């Protein structure tokens, strides 16, 4: 099982699609840092937790689009030929689904890690700020439910038809870059850009970082919904047509 996971991960990481999209994500993240974040979000400091959460939220849509593009490959004709061979292996459908999801998760974390390092370099170079530990928990609350929900929807769509995975791409784009800024903002960019404006400022001239219960509830719902969809997908073994 570990050997299969290593093979699948290597296949994704060395694919031209992942390498190209990783470059695009990195360039886009730097663009967000040097245009939006450098001015501070909602009148907060560029290195505030508010601004960093907004940075993550603004980069997440493209990260999820990358994962969906990789995920679509699992439901293409070439992969179905591979499935005929894998179907003869001791791996169960559930194990294969978990391996595929885990491999996508590693790709997603690599993208997020590079963007986080880029943000840290930006904060250190431009503002001499190094207090990155306060960013970790809010960042995890943003990225984990977002990934689990998105990859769950992606697997469900792909099981029906590969084209539905591609149909999710414009939806992610609209939701991420043009969507509302309420508590159910899947990515968080709009939420963390708007919510600070509703809070009173402290002695430092900006609102104290707090996360309201509605946003936390939304993250919990996304996490549970995504996990539930993955469980449903694992319950239905796809039919493999043998040549």
Identify the overall geometry: globular
**Would you count the extended β strands for me?**
0
- Termini separation (Å)? 25 Å
Radius of gyration: 19 Å
**Could you tell me the strand content as a percent range?**
under 5%
The number of helical segments is 9
For the biggest sheet, the summary is: none
User: Helices and strands: which structural class?
Assistant: mainly alpha
Helix content: over 70%
Q: Note the run of SSEs as H and E.
A: HHHHHHHHH
Properties at a glance:
243 residues, 9 helices, 0% strand
Structure write-up:
The protein starts with a helix and ends in an 8-residue tail after the last helix. The chain is mainly alpha-helical. The mean pLDDT is 89. The longest helix is centred in the middle third of the chain and has 35 residues, at 93-127. It contains 9 helices and no strands.
Give a short summary of the structure.
The protein has 243 residues and is mainly α. It is built from 9 helices and no strands.
Topology:
Layout: H1 2-13, H2 16-35, H3 49-72, H4 77-86, H5 93-127, H6 136-160, H7 162-177, H8 189-194, H9 213-235
Helix pairs in contact: 1-5, 2-3, 2-5, 3-5, 3-6, 3-7, 6-7, 6-9
């Amino acid at each position: 099982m570990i050997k299969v996971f290593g093979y699948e991960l290597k296949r994704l990481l060395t694919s031209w699609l992942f390498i190209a999209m990783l470059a695009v994500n990195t360039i886009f993240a730097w663009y967000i840092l040097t245009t939006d974040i450098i001015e501070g979000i909602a009148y907060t400091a560029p290195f505030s937790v508010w601004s960093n959460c907004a940075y993550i939220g603004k980069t997440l849509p493209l990260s999820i689009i990358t994962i969906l593009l990789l995920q679509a490959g699992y439901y293409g004709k070439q992969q179905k030929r591979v499935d005929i061979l894998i179907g003869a292996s001791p791996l169960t459908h559930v194990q294969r689904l978990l391996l595929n999801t885990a491999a996508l998760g590693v790709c997603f974390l690599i993208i997020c890690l590079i963007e986080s390092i880029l943000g840290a370099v930006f904060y250190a170079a431009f503002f001499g700020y190094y207090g990155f530990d306060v960013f970790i928990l809010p960042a995890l609350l943003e990225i984990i439910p977002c990934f689990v929900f998105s990859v769950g929807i992606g697997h469900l769509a792909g099981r029906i038809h590969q084209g539905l995975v591609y149909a999710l791409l414009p939806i992610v784009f609209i939701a991420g870059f043009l969507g509302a800024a309420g508590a159910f903002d899947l990515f968080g960019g709009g939420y963390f850009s708007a919510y600070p404006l509703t809070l009173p400022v402290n002695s430092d001239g900006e609102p104290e970082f707090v996360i309201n219960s509605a946003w936390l509830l939304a993250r919990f719902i996304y996490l549970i919904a995504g996990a539930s969809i993955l469980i449903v997908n694992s319950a239905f073994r796809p039919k493999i047509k043998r040549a």
